[in-house]
Amino acid sequence: MAARFWVGGAGTWDATTTTHWAATSGGVAGASAPTSADTATFDTLSNAIAYAVTIGTNAVCLDVSIAAPAVGNVTITYLATSVLNVHGSWLNAATGVAFSTAAGCILNFLATTTGKTVTSNNVSWATLLVRFNGIGGYWTLGSALTITSGLSPNILAGTFDTGGFAMTLNSLLSTTTTNVRAINLNASTIICSGNGAVNLAATNLTFNAGTSTINCSSAAPQFFGGSQTFYNVNFTSATAAINTVTITGANTFNNLNVTTTTLQKVITLSANQIVSGTLTLGATNTAPLRMSVVSDVVGTPRTLTVATLATLADVDFRDIVAAGTSSPWSGTRIGNCLGNSNITFTAAATKYWNLAAGGNWTSTAWALTSGGAVAVNNFPLAQDSVIIEDTGLTAGNTITINSNADIGSLSMATRTTALTLALGDNDPRFYGNVTLCSSLTTTGTTNPTFSFLGQGIANTFSSAGIVLKLSSFIVNCPTGSLTLQSNTTVELTAGSSGTTTLTAGTFNLGGFNLTAVAFNGANATGTARTFTQGAGAIDITGNSGTVWNTTSATGLTFTTTPTVNFTYSGAVGTRTIAANTAGAINVNVTAGADSITIGDTFKNVDFTGFAGTLNNGTRNIHGNLTLSAGMTLAAGTLTTTIGLTATTTLTSNTKTMDFPVTFSSTGTINCLDALTLGSTRALTFTGGTLNLAAGTTSTVGSFVTTGTTMKYLGSTTPGTQATISDASGTDTVTYLTIQDSNATGGATWSALSATNVDAGNNTGWFFSIPPKQAFEYTVRLRSFTQPWRF
Fold this sequence. Notes:
By secondary structure, this protein is mostly beta strands.
């Protein structure tokens, strides 16, 4: 172990440079750079005036001690690539020391023994990424600690002990699951200002909350508690229009407090929670400035086991089970967003808009009768019926949805004069029937959404034929349904924004048409959902990204196979249409000169009217395939498989399919015109009957049969040959019955295997010749004069 002292003012500290290191304080430079066994000291003799030390990529030491020069500051400068590895303790003075950091710079504490201290004297380390990562190491704070980086401090190995000092952090992290590690919070107060406020991976972690207080101050904190036990946790932000708090892990708290924001706060739980002390849900909530406590999955309840519940007012619940000595719960203006237990809700009522000039949804604008007196406490709850009529709103005025409002049923059925519903980027959530009016205009900015969450009940929706300016129209009604009662169009931005999503429950078009930029029926969790098209048409207008997605189709049921018209008529963008067997659809691409990728499994696919490019892809078509004469088929090595069980058709319209094609069916595939594959592309025949177009020549790069079941190659007109051509090589087939086939083109067509059958009217094929029968004759002649010999 050696001592190293910085001398000579400004310079770079790395693993090898000796320019600024001396063996004694203020000594002669040229000593070796510190190693993991050496102390590194910056003191008053390092330089007389202010100077900067730039950390290189592999700076290292045992202990580090930093003090100010005689005049000014020493600035420890970290570049984006800077890494400093400290194998012992840290001490910097409270004054005369500053840190200049860049995103990505790292300070590693790598001690493997106990007794180490970290004393920053509350000098901010700014965006420094701090990692405690020494197996067997034990670090105790010697002062308050301030780090504003979103990724530190991260306790990856060893024990981190706050020593009871306060910490001001972006996030409190322990993200590894591999190393044994411990965190001791003692009586510290910890402010986590980042959205990733707390992130603890439970495996191999010992977490001792002590009597600490964690204050999460950001507008959208994520509290990944790792199923640990905490003492006091407060969510304190009141700065954003809508605050969101996400709590994951089955955690236990002493006291849990969520303060009221300026408009709305939503607490989302992904697991059951226990509060052994007091749960406070917004001590200063008001009727319109509400708090919501919800499960992260609609229809999946979360249990809140609470010893003491602070006075409850103006809180909405969805999928929450109240438990513990505090239950059942009750309070003032408590909203029922469904799926709850052991909570007493305010009786449902009818609320009328009565603010003639319009205003925010949260305005004092609501009355208990048509044209009645307004009052702030008349704000509609999730179980209420909302009516917007001609009375109460002057023609042409606007109601602005300024929160993610929970709305029971909404009716504009009697409204005849113009109005605007301005959504901004908000997500009104509906728990009942919604009826709009034809005089309505909707507006949104980037991400306005309608969500229908009426789980367990039959909901209806009528748009009255207007265009819904939405980025998302979401049906999420577990064990419930939403049925359209008018043609519905969802489009925020033509071609690129306006997706209808089926997340859970039943979505029934009710015989009406659905027009949307895109449709998403995929759900990786496999939640039960049903789509009923009936007599309604589905028109998808998008030209960018995945415009249809039913790939994660577990739990998805189509009452009939949907027929979907992809109607974009421009020439810009790439559309992706993705489905699988359970979520297969009939595809009609009716227009467009753009690019299309279709992937996975479909029923009928018809490109009539399409003049763009079909990209090469792996796809399975279990119905008819119709290509258009004006389209282009991109070449590639990915295979298109055609056929399933029924009788299907293929119309190529003279297009060359320059990719491998497999015909696989237990039914019949009829080619209605000549089939042309690229000169190197194989046509593989695995089962069923393949009838090539009679009187035409189909061209392949090679012809391959697979499997040991009998297959049938014929012509679409019995008795009339269909020609199949291959320019070179030998095409050998097995288990194939051949009829009305003319094989030509220069290749050798070998059907010599005894598993093949020549069913007649074939030319160009080489079949095996049956062996001739052998006979043996014995002739005996009798002569009375002499013997005869044969």
